[in-house]
């Protein structure tokens, strides 16, 4: 008799896992796009869909992607206002990562003719961003002198 293996499926989870930042000496931006966020409208119970954009400058820790995926999935059956869920996700990430900077942008799809965008930010106390370098500001080289 042949033995069959039981399939193991992932499940939603509020647990967020991290790993050590491999380059702590440098400010660098991690950019993530999460195009399939869903939660429920707390008034109607209908699904709300959003595209989340997460940008952060890590300090000691970085977020592990599978745990982030399962965490985001955990909101699928929860009722939440757009403003509340955006800030809750940011707060949860800040607690585990303690980043130098983090911004979460939630772009909810149209509901009743209205698009909702929510932007929430966190800055570590005392952290100042480095000045950006805009390479586009340099004049292009020319083959002729004028």
UniProtKB/TrEMBL annotation:
Residues involved in substrate binding: 63-65, 82-83
Q: Active site annotated at which positions?
A: 41 (thioimide intermediate), 48 (proton donor)
Q: What EC designation does it have?
A: 1.7.1.13
Q: Which GO terms describe its cellular component?
A: cytoplasm
InterPro entries under this entry? Answer: GTP-CH-I_C/QueF (IPR043133), NADPH_dep_7-cyano-7-deazaG_red (IPR050084), QueF (IPR029500), QueF_type1 (IPR016856)
Source organism superkingdom: Bacteria
**Which principal EC class is assigned to this enzyme?**
oxidoreductase
Keyword entries, A-Z: Cytoplasm, NADP, Oxidoreductase, Queuosine biosynthesis
Q: Kindly list the places in or outside the cell where this protein is found, as annotated in its UniProt entry.
A: Cytoplasm
Q: Which Gene Ontology molecular function entries are recorded, alphabetically?
A: preQ1 synthase activity
Catalytic activity as recorded in UniProt: 7-aminomethyl-7-carbaguanine + 2 NADP(+) = 7-cyano-7-carbaguanine + 2 NADPH + 3 H(+)
Annotated Pfam families: QueF
GO biological process entries:
tRNA queuosine(34) biosynthetic process
Quote the pathway field. Answer: tRNA modification; tRNA-queuosine biosynthesis
Name the principal localization, coarsely classed. Answer: cytoplasm
Keyword hit for Acetylation: no
What HAMAP family does the record tag this protein with? QueF_type1
| Cross-referenced PANTHER family | NADPH-DEPENDENT 7-CYANO-7-DEAZAGUANINE REDUCTASE
Q: Which protein family is named in the record?
A: Belongs to the GTP cyclohydrolase I family. QueF type 1 subfamily.
Q: Which NCBIfam families match?
A: QueF-II
Q: What does this protein do?
A: Catalyzes the NADPH-dependent reduction of 7-cyano-7-deazaguanine (preQ0) to 7-aminomethyl-7-deazaguanine (preQ1).
Q: What is this protein called?
A: NADPH-dependent 7-cyano-7-deazaguanine reductase
Species source reads Nitrosomonas halophila
């Amino acid at each position: 008799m042949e033995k069959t293996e039981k399939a193991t499926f992932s499940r939603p989870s509020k647990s967020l896992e991290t790993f050590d930042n491999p380059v702590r000496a440098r400010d660098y931006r991690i950019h993530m796009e999460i195009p399939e966020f869903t939660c429920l409208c707390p008034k109607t119970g209908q699904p709300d869909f959003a595209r989340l954009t997460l940008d952060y400058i890590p300090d000691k820790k970085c977020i592990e992607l599978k745990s982030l995926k399962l965490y985001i999935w955990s909101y699928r059956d929860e009722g939440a206002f757009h403003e509340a869920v955006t800030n809750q996700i940011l707060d949860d990430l800040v607690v585990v990562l303690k980043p130098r900077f983090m911004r979460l942008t939630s772009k909810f799809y149209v509901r009743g003719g209205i698009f909702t965008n929510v932007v929430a930010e966190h800055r570590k106390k005392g952290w100042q961003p480095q000045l950006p370098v805009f390479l586009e500001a340099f004049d292009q080289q020319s083959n002729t002198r004028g």
